[in-house]
């Protein structure tokens, strides 16, 4: 049974089980998921009223029409609901502080693998739960969709990269627990950065040019802004390629950083009585 | 309640403040990062407004400086809520952990004890930032000294009313945990609605929505209405309405809390 291939197969199976457990537990707490949707919906209503009162006066924000701007916010909120999960940092830091992480060090299980399986399970459930809503929204707002087969391909890749960037970013925040006595502050800052710099409050292209240029090189935009802009058809082929390359570079950089931080953390980690 | 009892409650609150500061200062680095985070969050709200006002002169009749007053009012009230009750998180934490009984058997009013169960001292920064924003905005209004005194008097009362309204709604929402231990979603929705108070409610031009946010879910009193006292002049009718609403909501929230306690079945006993 324990041939190389058998071991490998078992290796994948255990992560599949973690993924399934995560999906099931997210289904159990579906009231929280639906409440999240209502909360984001209410948020969208306020912003829509805000934009409406601005456009009613004959003003315009950047190159966006009123419909385009509202559609942009619908998209970023959908991406936020599905992929922007921030609790990872608290889970990781709690497990480090409480010594639970030792359990995974003693088992033939990668801690990173476990956490990413939990994350994928959560994203999969949310995607399934929100799919009917996305389909309905897509049908009624189809005139705003500017997707081609080519850009859909890039959208899928960049959205997956964005989801993993979000995961790695908050996973890193949690790993700071190896070095700090409290990570609540740093996680709070991370959440603030992700909320504003991912374009969830305002589209990044309406921000002042100097700030926009800096944010263009940071990883946050791949979580909401870039996927939304692809759907709105705002990128040409070169920009799509450049965004994909940059998102993959950030993914690699964050993954290497997470590995280095985890290994450095384990070297100095002490736990008692576990 | 006599004078001695008031003193006792003040002493308990001050002890809670002391304990909170001590527990935060166990890890000073984290405390200062949290302080910085609070300032950063307030700055993001202002920056958002600045970006929007970069494209428009006014929004529904509110200039940039007047809209700053709405943010300042919201931050004053939110800061007060955090440093006195931490969004009433004591209710849900104690219900979920089955430790509510230990709070109920103490010879102090249960509502008071559960309200001050947690206090977040770092959120005093919200009040400091609110004060700075208020001063910055106030510099653009050229009123006489007497005018300032009257407007500020009305403003202070409306801020207090806003605090009581916020507190009462938070208590009612958190009391739901006594019936449904998994009411976390309601809390998410509550926070989302409360965040609307940062923007002038005059943007809701539909009369139904306007009515909703000034009566049923009175978020207008947590930002817009206090700001109006400074920006557009004091209105006696609004102040009376705010006082009555605050009083009424406080009474209702106390009843809801007691009803919640009657429905509560302990998890620990």
Write a concise synopsis of the structure shown.
Chain A is mainly alpha-helical.
Q: What amount of the residues of chain A lies in strands?
A: under 5%
User: How much beta of chain B, percentage-wise?
Assistant: under 5%
Q: Could you say which structural class the secondary elements and strand pairing of chain B correspond to?
A: mainly alpha
Unreliable segments of 5+ consecutive residues of chain B: none
Mean pLDDT rating of chain B: 89
Low-confidence stretches of chain A: 1-9
Let me know the number of strands of chain B.
0
Helix content of chain A: over 70%
Q: What's the order of the H and E elements of chain B? A: HHHHHHHHHHHH
- Overall shape of chain B: globular
The N- and C-terminal alpha carbons of chain B lie at a distance of 32 Å
Biggest chain pair interface: A-B, 40 and 39 residues
Order of helices and strands of chain A: HHHHHHHHHHH
Number of helices of chain A: 11
Count of individual domains of chain B:
1
Biggest β-sheet of chain B, characterized?
Answer: none
Structural write-up:
The complex is a heterodimer of chains A (274) and B (269). In chain A, helix 7 (149-175) runs antiparallel to helix 10. Chain A has one domain (4-268). Chain A is globular, with a radius of gyration of 20 Å. Chain A is built from eleven helices and no strands. Chain A is mostly helical. The model of chain A is unreliable at 1-9 (pLDDT under 50). Helix content of chain B is 72%, strand content 0%. Chain B is built from twelve helices and no strands. In chain B, helix 3 (64-85) packs across helix 11 (224-231) and helix 8 packs antiparallel against helix 11. With 269 residues, chain B is mainly alpha-helical. Chain B has one domain. In chain B, 41% of the residues are buried. Classes of the chains: A mainly alpha (274), B mainly alpha (269). Chain A binds chain B through residues 29, 31-32, 34-36, 38-40, 42-43, 46, 49-50, 52-54, 56-57, 59-62, 180-186, 188-189, 192, 195-196, 201-202, 206-208, and chain B through 26-27, 29-34, 36-37, 40-41, 44, 48, 51-52, 54-56, 58-60, 182, 184-186, 188-189, 191-193, 195-196, 199, 202-205, 209.
């Amino acid at each position: 049974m324990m041939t190389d291939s058998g071991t490998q197969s078992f290796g994948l199976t255990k992560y599949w089980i973690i993924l399934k457990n995560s999906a099931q537990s997210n289904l159990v707490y579906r009231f929280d998921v639906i409440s999240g949707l209502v909360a984001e919906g209410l948020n969208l209503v306020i912003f829509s009223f805000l934009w409406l009162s601005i456009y009613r006066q004959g003003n315009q924000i950047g190159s966006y029409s009123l419909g385009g701007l509202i559609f942009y916010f619908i998209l970023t909120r959908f991406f936020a609901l599905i992929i922007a999960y921030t609790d990872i940092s608290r889970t990781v830091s709690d497990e480090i502080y409480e010594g639970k992480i030792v359990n995974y060090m003693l088992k033939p299980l990668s801690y990173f693998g476990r956490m990413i399986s939990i994350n994928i399970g959560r994203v999969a459930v949310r995607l399934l739960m929100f799919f009917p809503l996305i389909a309905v929204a897509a049908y009624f707002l189809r005139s705003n969709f500017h997707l081609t087969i080519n850009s859909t391909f890039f959208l899928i890749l960049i959205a997956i990269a964005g989801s993993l960037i979000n995961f790695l970013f908050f996973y890193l925040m949690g790993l700071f627990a190896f070095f700090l006595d409290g990570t609540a502050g740093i996680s709070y800052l991370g959440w603030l950065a992700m909320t504003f710099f991912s374009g969830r409050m305002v589209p990044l292209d309406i921000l002042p040019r100097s700030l926009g240029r800096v944010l263009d090189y940071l990883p946050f935009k791949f979580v909401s802004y870039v996927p939304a802009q692809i759907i709105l058809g705002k990128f040409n082929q070169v920009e799509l390629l450049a965004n994909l390359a940059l998102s993959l570079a950030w993914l690699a950089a964050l993954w290497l950083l997470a590995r280095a931080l985890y290994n450095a953390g384990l070297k100095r980690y002490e736990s008692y009585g576990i | 309640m006599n004078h001695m009892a008031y003193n006792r409650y003040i002493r308990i609150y001050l002890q809670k403040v002391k304990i909170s500061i001590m527990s935060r200062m166990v890890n000073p680095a984290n405390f200062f990062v949290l302080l910085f985070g609070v300032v950063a969050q307030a700055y993001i709200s202002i920056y958002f407004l600045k970006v929007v006002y970069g494209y428009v002169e006014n929004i529904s009749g509110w200039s940039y400086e007047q809209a700053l007053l709405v943010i300042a009012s919201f931050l004053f009230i939110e800061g007060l809520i955090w440093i006195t009750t931490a969004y009433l998180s004591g209710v849900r934490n104690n219900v979920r952990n089955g430790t509510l009984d230990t709070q109920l058997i103490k010879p102090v009013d249960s509502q008071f004890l559960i309200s001050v169960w947690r206090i977040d001292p770092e959120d005093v920064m919200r009040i400091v930032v609110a004060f700075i924003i208020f001063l910055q905005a106030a510099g653009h209004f050229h009123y006489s000294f007497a005018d300032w005194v009257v407007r500020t008097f009305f403003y202070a009362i409306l801020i207090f009313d806003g605090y009581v309204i916020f507190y009462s709604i938070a208590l009612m929402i958190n009391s739901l945990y006594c019936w449904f231990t998994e009411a976390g979603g309601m809390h998410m929705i509550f926070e989302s609605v409360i965040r609307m108070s940062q923007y002038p409610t005059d943007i809701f031009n539909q009369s139904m929505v306007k009515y909703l946010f000034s009566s049923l879910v009175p978020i207008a009193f947590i930002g817009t209405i206090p700001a109006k006292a400074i920006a557009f002049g004091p209105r006696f009718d609004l102040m009376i309405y705010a006082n009555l609403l605050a009083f009424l909501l406080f009474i209702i929230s106390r009843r809801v809390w007691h009803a919640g306690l009657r429905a509560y079945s302990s998890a620990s006993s």
